[in-house]
Amino acid sequence: MIKLLLNPFERFAGAASLWIGLCFLIITCIVAYAGNIHLDGVLDLHISENTTWKITAIETLLNWWCMFLFIYIAGLLLSKSSIRIIDVFGTQAMARAPFLIATIGNLFLSGSRIDKYLNNRFLQRGEAVEITGGDIALFVVSMLLTLLALIWMVMWMYRAYCISCNVKGTKSILSFIAALLLAEISSKLLLSLLL
Amino acid sequence: MAVEKRMPQSCPSCDTKMKVKKLVCPNCATEVDGLFNFPVLSALSNEEQLFIIDFIKVGGSLKDMATNMKLSYPTIRNQLDDIIERVSSLQKLNDKK
To answer: Looking at CA atoms only, how far is residue A97 from chain B in angstroms?
Structure first.
């Protein structure tokens, strides 16, 4: 079970991982829409006020496709194995599953007193509100959950890359970091152009 | 409990690759003396040899192998690629000698 949580791609790849990944992406999309959460980058999520179905769907798809594209290019350049595009595409979709936890973590914050307090305090938006110890606890738990989910997702993305492209050692770590950075930058750029 | 013996591949004293010197027929005790090379595949680990046997049994289908072993296709393909790389390097090493 622990092995499955740390590296599910030894067991799931190809079409199976694509379907599992798509299910999680759709649920993440619904939660993000319900909580007014913007998924504006491969590793980003922010609470906002004006989210629509179209925006959350485009953000979800672009984040996944940007990561897939750079991982696939890295695989083509570095791997000696014959890579199947469905493995890279599917495993990168499934690797985004932990992001659902981060989105749920932020769902509790969306519209909460702490959200209003932070908006008023740092963005000078809305009315001033008083916060309690419970609000701070909610904020800390949500942030920890988000951080944990992000680390988990990056770990899955890396494992998915190693297995789907058969890349190992230092070159796998360096090329993954490069692909992740490029995907993050390009997703930000594309989303700012499209939305 | 029966102990599974493994054929030593290299000399325990100087690490040079070993050769087969004597073969014995277990039925009539006929002995053949000479200097024979190990087959390349015997230099692989037990797991790698079992993998090759399973691979042959499923007719070389990575998909069937992945289903039987309850592993994903790329995991099996990566294992096979690792064995291919190891066999290639062993063959190169043998060719040099």
So the answer is: 18
* A170 vs A175: CA distance, rounded Å: 8
- What is the ipTM score, two decimals? 0.83
A12: nearest CA partner in chain B: B72
> Domain B38-96 has what CATH class?
mainly alpha
- In chain A, how many domains are there? 1
* Full domain range(s) for residue A172: 11-194
Digit-coded pLDDT (tens) for A120-179: 777 777 777 777 888 888 888 888 999 999 999 999 999 999 999 999 999 999 999 999
B71 with A14: Cβ contact below 8 A: no
Q: What are the tens digits of pLDDT across the range A72-116?
A: 999 999 999 999 999 999 999 999 999 999 999 888 877 777 777
Per-residue burial over B42-72, b if 16 or more Cβ lie within 10 Å, else e, is ebbeeebeebeeebeeeeeebeebbeeeebb
Q: Judge whether A3 lies within some domain.
A: no
- The answer to the question of residue A5 being in a domain is no
